[in-house]
What does this fold into?
Amino acid sequence: MARKLVTAVPRSVIPVKLSKEQSSVLEAVSKGRSVFFTGSAGTGKSFLMKRIIGTLPPQHTFATASTGVAACHIGGTTLHAFAGIGSGRGTLEHCVQLASRAQVAQQWRKCKHLVIDEISMVDGEFFEKLEAVARVIRRNDQPFGGIQLIMCGDFLQLPPVTKGKEKVNFCFQTQAWKKCIQMNIELTEVRRQSDKSFIDVLQQIRLGRCPDYVYTTLRATAKQNIQRDGILATRLCTHKEDVNQINEHHLQKLNGEFKLFTSTDSDSVYTQQINGMCPVPDKLNLKVGAQVMLTKNLDVQKGLVNGARGIVIGYQKDNDGYPIVKFRCGMEEEIKPIRWSFKFSGGNISTRKQIPLKLAWAISIHKSQGMTLDCVEISLSRVFECGQSYVALSRAKCLEGLRVLDFEKSCVKANLEVLRFYHKLDLHKRMMQTSIGDY
Ligand SMILES: Nc1ncnc2c1ncn2[C@@H]1O[C@H](COP(=O)(O)OP(=O)(O)OP(=O)(O)O)[C@@H](O)[C@H]1O
It folds into this structure.
């Protein structure tokens, strides 16, 4: 049978129109307001953020995110790398000292627009330090030293990482937040899923609720057979140690030769750091039959998007023997290396060229934040974080692509302080009788 084989290279994508509510955020940003926009999973926050970044002057705009993966998604750097104050756990004097290093201070002074994606995972104390450091280094007494803040995230998803039994400290609880944020906007149209009843189930979980119909709906998915054409469901794991173990185990079990694809990193000094940010490892070991996931949008129209699931069916005979992958959407593609760029502390730029694939028998829920996934299997029995179940479940595009194992009502947890914060936002919006159209 003739193969539908085309070479996957990123093609120019027809720009997708922003929704009315997304456009209002863009407008507020263009007026120079410091904004926080939020919304459920899949309401297009990161999508909008990328658009916003494209409209801001590149020399004065710093795109950051709380995690390496999220930063990579918007073509930016981690907030920690930008700030240059280490973990931020030292005294304010120490943080100022660190930020006074020539290269770091230069960035702080150049910055007029600071973008922060996945703000829910930024620690409140760290945020307060940044606000003070910005004023001191920029010698400007305005909030955040006069920098316009453009932040987004959903506090009902993953919280900041804490050590042991430390209390979670959210950004919205800080004085710095109250001082800096001029506008809170909530996106309400879910874009990832289209099935209204599934969206409703997810909304209940997001708010920490699990009425009987939600319980029954999710329990029923356990029996679903969601594999198709040899492409299995990806297991979302609560603990990252399980991820490598599962992927390694399944790869070993496959018959056939290993084929190693090693990345070309522009500066090997950064290889370890890049591993923490880049969705693909420096060493990618594959076999025919390996379950893989695309980590970059190659062709949105054809469904070759970040998170698309497939299976390695062979290697190209000529050239460098790049892998050929059969995707769930039916396409068979030769996957060629692609380049990622990373900015490090002090503005150093490093690149990685690698095949945009990763093993996909399993991924961690933390790494899945921000992704849209084709077919997922989730075991929630070891959930340890508020919002963790919601993040996992909301990665699925539809109920038919989801299998939830050992689901219990106790897996559903939302943080009370966060619920109060969202309640207040909602109340404020109603009291002011504003709608998104008024912004
Ligand atoms: N205006 C739009 N038109 C068409 N598709 C859109 C639009 N906005 C967002 N999307 C699509 O909706 C999906 C979800 O968007 P995105 O990942 O940005 O949501 P998110 O709010 O950041 O989700 P999460 O909170 O889970 O990270 C993506 O596939 C994105 O391309």
About this structure: The longest strand covers residues 309-315. Confidence is low (pLDDT under 50) at residues 1-14, 435-439.
